[in-house]
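Appendix C reproduces, verbatim, an entry submitted by the partner laboratory led by Prof. M.T., so that reviewers can inspect both the input and the predicted structure.
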Amino acid sequence: MPTRNPQQANCGSPDHGLHRRRFLEGLGGTAGALATMSWGGLFSAPALAEEVKRQQKHCILLWLCGGPSQFETWDPKPGRPSSGPFKSIPTTIPGVHFSELLPKCASIADQLSIVRSMKTAQSEHFLGIDLLVRGGKQRPPFTRPALGSVLGQQLGQLDSPIPNFILLEPCPRGNEFESFKKGNWAGWLGAEYAPVRYGGEFKIPDVERLASISGADHEEREALRKFFSRKFENETKSEAAQSYNAVYERVKGLMSCAHLFDLDRLPQADRERYGPGTFGQHALLARSLVEEGAPFVMVANGMPWDTHVFNHEIYQMVVPDLDNIVFQLTKDLADRGLLEKTLVVVMGEFGRTPWINQARGRDHYPNAWSLAMAGCGLKGGTVVGATDADGVDVIDRVVDEKNLFATIFSALGIDPHAEYDLPGLPTFHHVEENAEPLHEILA
């Protein structure tokens, strides 16, 4: 029986790195240059706009909030005391088995990259989420931006009305993820790269122009507001004013794309394939938003994976749902020619214990856990690392959050070791300590 540990309860282009603010500064700020970069300017040329869209990379993060069990998903231990009641089944990767709760994923395992040797340092939800969403420890008083904010900056297009970072969620109350979502996602990148939240009580409000205001009047008012706001921002060098202006720019973009968040516009047959639950419907919406040009979409599903009680009973419901969602999303992206330029990541903040507690549940366990990825040129049919017979510890190829983020950035064509442009501040990199990506799954 496993012994309880008392301490544990380049598929991209360099053009993608272009930053809107730096580009505008490089133009010299002249009226003619700014006019060229307006919403109807340079990138409104159909051929260029289509080429930019064709080359753009995307990322969809399916966030399994609460910490999913590796034993009932990607790293089963059949016949061992840690295994639980579920069997394992063969996959399309010779010699590799998944939990029997994942038959559809087993049938497309040759398109998936599985990491079975994650080993991280935080066993509490809030700290674990912070670590795995940001890819590194905080260095107070500086706030490291979340993955979605960084990828929104690096992959977002200059004139796209689609938000750079979209967070789709059921918005559950009273849990650690809700506390995290209220925090500072964008860090030093600023409000321009904070997420647009949608789902639950979060809608896309105030995006329809009043009938009493003509289109021309609306544009003139906006131009006047922008003039005075920019003047104030430039004179005061105010970060608050900069964030304020970023919010207005976001609303202007949302006015033209709010309809893209309407699930009712998607085919009923697609909605039925993804299942009736919010997680599945939001995964379908993520696919649609990526088709429309969204750089990064994070789909969170509350806390159903935090199974301190009745682990096996709960997993009989949530794992088959995940199985179908990953299968449908991967298939749809491939059918639409999007999988080669869209990275799909399936993970939570840690795994679950190899032992079953007195409430028939599994507790938090960051020592040895699993995740899955697909798309964006990753080598499908690859399994990285291994745990021991009972899944107590990693015995081959330890992978931490820095290695994971280096892999994500590399797959998306972003230099994982590049420095952030932060004049006057300490040096920060996309990934610290020169952590290496998982070269064995990179194309």
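The chain has a mean pLDDT of 83. Additional entries are available on request from the coordinating office.
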